[in-house]
Amino acid sequence: METNETQRTVAVITIFYKERYLTSLVLDDTKTGDIFVEVMQCALNRKGQQHITFRKELRTVYDIDTIFEDLFALSDGYAEPQGALLNVVEEIDRSERR
To answer: Which domain, by its residues, includes 19?
Structure first.
């Protein structure tokens, strides 16, 4: 499997109402995320624009086969964590240090 088939970037849009979490959406690509936020902001009336805010984050989605290959290589002692697994290990390390 080629690299571009094993991972892709999606947009996670988080919607807040009066600065409190309302909901999140995962959209298939960054362009769709941009369009969604733009259309929603245009559709809101003045009061809605004051109270509803959006936050867009880009996230990587990995193919399960890639993750399994990495996990098996790690469990056999043939590899060091890389890519998604390295990110997870680093996040665990940061949490442990807190």
So the answer is: 1-61
Name which of 39, 62, 63 is nearest 52 in CA terms: 39
HSE-up of residue 89 (Cα within 13 Å, Cβ side):
10
- 53, 9 contact by CB (below 8 A): no
Query: Kind of pairing, strands 20-27 and 7-17?
Result: antiparallel
Q: Are residues 7 and 42 in the same domain?
A: yes
19 Cβ contact list (under 8 Å, min separation 6) = 53
Q: Which pLDDT tens digit goes with each residue over 38-52?
A: 999 888 887 778 889
Distance between CA atoms of residues 12 and 32, nearest Å: 10
pTM: 0.62
